Amino acid sequence: MCSMLEVQIASMKPHDLIAELKPAHHPRLYGTAGCETWSVRFSPDGSYFAWSMGYGIVKLLSWPLTSKDAEAGCSEEKTLNCRQMVWALAFGPCQSIRVDVLHQNGHDHELLLATGLNNGAIQVWVVSTGNLRFTLTGHEAPVRDLVFTPNGSLTLVSASRDKTLRIWDLAKKGTSPHVLRGPNYWVFRCSISPDSSVIASVCNLDSKVYLWSLRSYTFMRHLTYDHERTMASCDFSQDGALLAVASYHSSTGWWLDLWDPYTAAHLTRVEDCEVCAYRSDNLLTSLSFSPVGLLLAFKDYRALQIWDVERDKLVADTDHGRTGGVCCAFHPHGGVIATGCRDGQVKFWRVPRLVPSLRHLCRVALRFSVSTYQVEALPLPKKILEYLTYRDVPKQKIIYCKEHCS
């Protein structure tokens, strides 16, 4: 029922704020544990929005939100009582429009929502009814991240503080998961390449990225930093040719790095404002590639920023003053991004609709199925090769905050 939350449809400044969700019961004290919105997700078709609103409660809402829905009592709203702190959400199955239809799973699965809990369990819910389908057990610590493979199957990858990743086949009841071991630290985040062949994962105190084969369930390689870093998040671009990694350190602030996952080449680094005196306290908490165009959103404690990688410029700098932002997620059709905060709130922001260039669309189509090594073997002019392998992206840049932007 809508008595549990407040839906506000924005009609005033800031101009890029679309709507806001507020829990009815605010935390008694800022920083109170349990009230945080650790995860927000849109369903693959964009018709649902899942909100981990704190205190073990997940809300399932129809999208788009309207003021009429709020007044009518939100009949489409469903409340999932997980009875544990919810760290991660994932809708599945997810189907990539770029995967060959011959390789898509031929069965029509009902839409599911997986929730990763503080006690290490994973609950799987039926979205249409809001009923609990089953619970997966095996992790011995909180499940920090969940991702379904984007090939239309019911393969779910989970990352946990027990220092493992597990690969579950939800279509085969009772099947034991494949367990990926190796990290010596908590596994915070994971991401799956668009062709469902590679898993990237990062740990909290480990200065490297782990790449795993989703076909053989084996470790492939590290992407290693030269300096000690605390890893925060990672995400593949829509063609799988780029891997974005967020990290931070007490002396240098946050870094956002783009890597080539095929060659382990470091392509570019984006750094926090070098003028700010308290840059070490400004942590980069999450990042996400847009499913439309080459936009990369990243959320730190000061703002939400969206970088147009192809044109090398910021196209959005908003959500100022929302300290403690911890997550963000794009709508699958573009145009909207949701952010969640430590105080349990969610805001929806308008994303500039940019038309991708024809050459970028050609690059995405080619790179989805062709590795960097295969591209480099083609008899093409140097500039074209650099463009196809993203070697034309500036090697380093600094994102100045709004206060120090000249």
UniProtKB/TrEMBL annotation:
Q: Which residues form the SOCS box domain?
A: 355-394
A Pfam family matched by this chain, by name? WD40
- In the record for this protein, the WD repeats are positioned at 136-170, 329-351
> What are the GO BP annotations of this UniProt entry?
intracellular signal transduction; protein polyubiquitination
Question: What are the entry keywords?
Answer: Repeat, Ubl conjugation pathway, WD repeat
> Which domain of life does this protein belong to?
Eukaryota
Q: Does the keyword Zinc-finger apply?
A: no
Q: PROSITE patterns attached here?
A: SOCS, WD_REPEATS_1, WD_REPEATS_2, WD_REPEATS_REGION
List the residue ranges forming a coiled coil, or say none: none
Task: Kindly give the InterPro entries that the UniProt entry links to this protein.
Answer: Quinoprotein_ADH-like_sf, SOCS_box, SOCS_box-like_dom_sf, WD40/YVTN_repeat-like_dom_sf, WD40_repeat_CS, WD40_rpt, WSB_SOCS-box_domain
Q: Kindly tell me the pathway this chain contributes to.
A: Protein modification; protein ubiquitination
Keyword Metal-binding listed? The answer is no
Q: Which SMART domains match?
A: SOCS, SOCS_box, WD40
Q: What is this protein called?
A: SOCS box domain-containing protein
Q: Which organism is it from?
A: Culter alburnus
